[in-house]
Amino acid sequence: MTDTRPSSTPASANALASATTLLPHPLPACENARIALFAMRRMGANGLADARAAHTMFTAFGQSFRRPLVLLRALMADLAATSAGTIAIAPCCCARMTPAESAMLSILARVETAPESARYLMADLLGVRRVDGVLASAAALAAAFADEGRPVTM
After folding, report:
1. pLDDT tens track for 59-80
2. DSSP letter at 148?
């Protein structure tokens, strides 16, 4: 009798290599960065008025949710309008991040403390030289998170 069980080694190894190539970064350890990432993914996939993104912000920020939510919507709109190409986002259930998502969270974490580094990351992410408007949106969002006691760190 022959063994009809599928060989899991080659296929599993290929799937793992593919996943780590497309999603090379682990989720951030910072809970606040994970909140921002989840809301970005929801808005990127389902539009700026996504109810789950709004609910996540309400759950995280309580009655002070409006400012971070509106600023996140503004940032997402600015990113879409300014980008020279597509910005890759992963589905909400993914336990890893795309390079673009990692760059976006790094920008939020650095925009106040290392603005030149944040500017270079934003220019690379968007593929354009003039990123002042989008960077201002990112700074406002980072400040909104920090003002509510939820600074984004990486």
Report:
1. 999 999 999 999 999 999 999 9
2. T
CA atoms within 13 A on the CB side of 136: 4
Number of domains in the chain: 1
Establish if 6 belongs to a structural domain: no
Contact 110, 33 (CB under 8 A): no
Task: Kindly report, residue by residue over 25-56, the tens digit of the pLDDT.
Answer: 889 999 999 999 999 999 999 999 999 999 99
Report yes or no on 152 lying in a domain: no
Please classify residue 145 by burial: count the beta carbons closer than 10 Å to its beta carbon, then call 0-12 exposed, 13-18 middle and 19+ buried. buried
Long-range contacts, 98-106 (Cβ 8 Å, 24+): 98/22, 98/23, 98/25, 99/24, 99/25, 100/125, 101/25, 101/37, 101/40, 101/41, 102/24, 102/25, 104/40, 104/79, 105/28, 105/33, 105/36, 105/37, 105/152, 105/154, 106/154
d(CA 70, CA 54): 9
- Residue labelled with tokens 């309400």: 58
Range of the domain at 98: 25-147
